[in-house]
């Protein structure tokens, strides 16, 4: 221990200690290599930790001509970058290569080895494991690949694996089928959707599941079982039977010499072969080893088991038919699917999958129509039109976000967990999440500015010089775009995360920064809603209440009610859009979520995009100004002239003294008298009507 000057070990001298059982070196930073060890028949533990090793020492000759085994090989915390061929061709209960610099596990790295527990935890540079890396290791029971950067997991050589650990490894894209791990009992993984794959093998790998069902039927028929797993009480079912190979598959059993399956599932595996010849003698472990570094503290002891009815030399397989169970094996898998990541498709329900396309069509088509008409009349650009263009663009982004979700749902229907990694951790989900937050914040900001602009125009109706200019509106909207961009960009730099759920919203709040970020989103929407409501109340009050400013005339009162109804409609759509999402978001943020992601998707489809669908119709398409702009655009195209003529005919007023020559001239003074009303009142009425038409 603590040997800063140790550089070399004369391994030949170790042969002078025939009873050597343990070799332990730690904190020897200058020890870079250890020569191949000679035969040491009594050696049980070989430990070199937190030193300067750059490659695994060759231990293949330690027990050359004996039936002994190594209880533990611990090489944790070194600088090992490579695994030399055959260096670990050993018989060992536990091998730890944790926290090294290994980048690749080559093919047949453990060929002819018998290792029960193998750990690569903490090798952050480990990206690739060859498909044949574990081939030839016939006793591997526990494997730990946590905190690495592997993207795939080979299955050759892992047929007898019982415990699999791949925690804190977000790079693992795809988990093999549960049928590739015939004895797997526990899996500690990183992603929820990998546990979904184990829970639904028929959807994860339909071809492999169909093969399993076929073999299960054959086995049930030959063993005299029915499909419920109940053995028929006949002498033939109770006696030992010989099952012939079927399509290269065989039935094996483990856990006891009597041939019982030690669980609920009989293993079905491809026929294995080895170059070793005869089986090695059985192993037994009498002492318990626990590494000082804690490498194996979580491992169960007793990794070696005597092979039962092993047929690696070829031949038939025997099993106790009466003890075979045909039920599907259940694997204890973590992390379990939760409220944020359930085992379901992006949309979840069939009716929701169909509905989202109607919402997408309304949002995209409506806002594109507004942008097309308003931008085509750029020569008549006013502040309301300028703001309306920004609002339509923001709502269009919401439609694009829903469109991306709908497309992914359509492509991954029925097997989303096979696509979950590429979607949630890919660029697509980040773009969708960015569009969602950006469009939501920009839409809320623009709605608030439009409302303030209408309120300002009505309040200062007679002061034309106090109206918001186009240049001022442009500066305000630049600020809105910057604010929205920052809020949408924060999850991309580590504040909350778009990849926490399949709908790509920053809903997970594990740290204080995430909670502050999400709370700021809710507070922004709440402040905007309160501002809009106050402004509309002030606008309504400016009408004088009950048409008093118009002298109580019935026509004016009817116009007032029309404006008030439209204001109520606009406020109502805002409330329906923001209130449900904000309410359930705040409760989740407070730690008492009242709705999970499965039901929250209803909010995402029907309430969250409500403004994106309603705004283009309420603020543009259904207004007279929009119809006039649309007809202007049609007139420029030179087509559909009959539509323009019909519109002119419908909007032409009846003849008056001003418009018809035969009308008596004495009516002119009456018309002139109508202009004697206060200029400010007329301007206010005009602004009120304009405000109602362009609500925001």
TrEMBL record:
Renumbered to this chain, region (Disordered) spans 225-287, 676-696
Q: How does it sit in the membrane?
A: Multi-pass membrane protein
Polar residues: compositionally biased ranges: 676-685
Source superkingdom: Eukaryota
What keywords would UniProt list here? Cell membrane, G-protein coupled receptor, Leucine-rich repeat, Membrane, Receptor, Repeat, Transducer, Transmembrane, Transmembrane helix
Indicate the segments annotated as coiled coil, or none if absent. none
Q: Which residues cross the membrane?
A: 350-375, 387-408, 442-464, 476-495, 515-537, 568-590, 602-622
**Subcellular location(s) per record:** Cell membrane
Annotated Pfam families? 7tm_1
Give all residue intervals belonging to the G-protein coupled receptors family 1 profile domain: 366-619
Q: Record's SUPFAM superfamilies?
A: Family A G protein-coupled receptor-like, L domain-like
Family indicated by similarity = Belongs to the G-protein coupled receptor 1 family.
Q: Which PANTHER family match?
A: GLYCOPROTEIN HORMONE RECEPTOR, LP13728P
Q: What is this protein called?
A: G-protein coupled receptors family 1 profile domain-containing protein
UniProt source species: Plutella xylostella
